[in-house]
Amino acid sequence: MYLASARRALCFPFALAFLFLSQIAAQEQCNLAKDLIVQSLERIKMGTNEEAGDGLQLLKHATEVCINSGDAWYYRSLFEKKLGQASKADYSLKKAKMFSSEAMEAGADPFVLSTGPHAGAFAPGPVHEKWALVVGISKFQDSRLHRLNFASKDAKDFAAVLLDPKVGRFQASHVHSLADGEVTTRQLKQELNWLARSASDPNDLVVIFLSSHGTPRSIDTAEVNYIATSDTELIPEDSLFATALPMVEISDIVRSRIRARRTVIFLDTCHSGAAIGNSNAPQPGPADSSASLAALDRLRQGVGRAIVTSSATDEQSYEGKPFANGYFTHFLLEALQKNGGQDSIEQIYGYLKQNVAKAASSIQRKQNPAFSRSEQGEEIVIGAPAGGG
To answer: N or C end: fewer C-beta atoms under 10 angstroms in the chain?
Structure first.
């Protein structure tokens, strides 16, 4: 009796340990499923059946490695519906409802362009309402992500210019600023959803400013797939998939949920410490990534979208002396104020391209902002007065 009880006592901790390890393994598989979802969404640029077919294979793998991923099942249903596989799409949708899907609740659909040619008749007119989300993330819980000295200040200064009645002319209630340095992935998603709900009129104007670290899926790809938030964990790699914000989520909100046909994104995700203080030595931590050409192309799909990044894909962005901001933001603020906010986004980019490159050259570095915009759309003037709709 005593020996049997002792054996049971010894087995109990092992059983708990086995259960714990099994739960960790299952979570890692579901984190991998999240990255497979991201990869499938990145396939969709023009919305062709070929793109959908490639993406569906990734989603099938996602539902295999994490059978209770509601998002994987939901997107799988959309891809199957796109390919004319109605019965399979119905089955996948039932699974999504069973396991609950955040993407389903948000109405996400990578095959729908909110400002595309099938979005309904539209006669462009004056700016109706103006909305802005301004984010600067400088503090990170993971020590491998070094603190950014100016990301938070850049966001605060940019928001102040938007609110200036002589420059940006935005209403205070229409500008959400996350500029205290710490922003979680959940907070950022919530604010992007607020923006998508608010900018519901085609004549609205939307501005997004985002400054943080940009992380690639791996060192073997030039794609910037994730935006680091304050609670992002870099290691193990599966934790990155679970805790950072995929770039594709930002582009899909812009592509499929923001109806405003004047939308501009300023993206600063490739920081370097080389211009901080008096040292030219880069700060420790993983190399940041700027947005790739493919990412820019995906963001500009639709009508009236413009994207400006702080540097080219193979460059870094510098901050600090001789400015009290990042180089990109310093000249962005100058460009906006130069003509009372009345310059077009093309004119602003021209000013950035010339002056940022010159400033970086003065410290023997290269930094050339990149620009992409939709082939169709009205002129975007950030300081245009609202209320014309």
So the answer is: N
Q: Which of 365, 326, 353, 373 is nearest to 212 (CA)?
A: 326
d(CA 75, CA 150): 37
**Number of domains present in the structure of the chain:** 2
- List beta partners, residue 359: none
Q: Tell me, yes or no, whether 116 lies in a domain.
A: no
Same domain, 67 and 166: no
Report residue 338 as tokens.
């130069």
Long-range contacts of 230-233 (CB under 8 A, 24+ apart): 230/137, 230/139, 230/140, 230/141, 230/181, 230/182, 230/183, 230/184, 231/141, 231/184, 231/185, 232/140, 232/141, 232/142, 232/145, 232/185, 233/141, 233/142
Residue among 264, 281, 227, 254 at smallest CA distance from 114:
254
What is the phi-psi region of residue 84: left when phi exceeds 0, alpha when psi lies from -120 to 50, beta otherwise?
left
Average pLDDT, the chain: 85
Asked if 23 and 157 sit in the same domain, the reply is: no
Q: CA 55 to CA 63: how far, in whole Å?
A: 13
Judge if 143 and 94 occupy the same domain: no
Residue 333 belongs to what domain range? 130-373
Distance CA 324, CA 359 (A): 13
Q: What pLDDT, in 10s, does the model give residues 152-197?
A: 999 999 999 999 999 999 999 999 999 987 899 999 999 999 999 9
Here the CATH number for the domain that contains residue 168 is 3.40.50.1460
Within a domain: 383: no
Question: What are the structure tokens assigned to 235, written together?
Answer: 């290691």
Three-state helix/strand/coil letters over 239-303: HHHHHCEEHHHHHHHHHHCCCCCEEEEEEECCECCCCCCCCCCCCCCCCCCCCCHHHHHHHCCCE
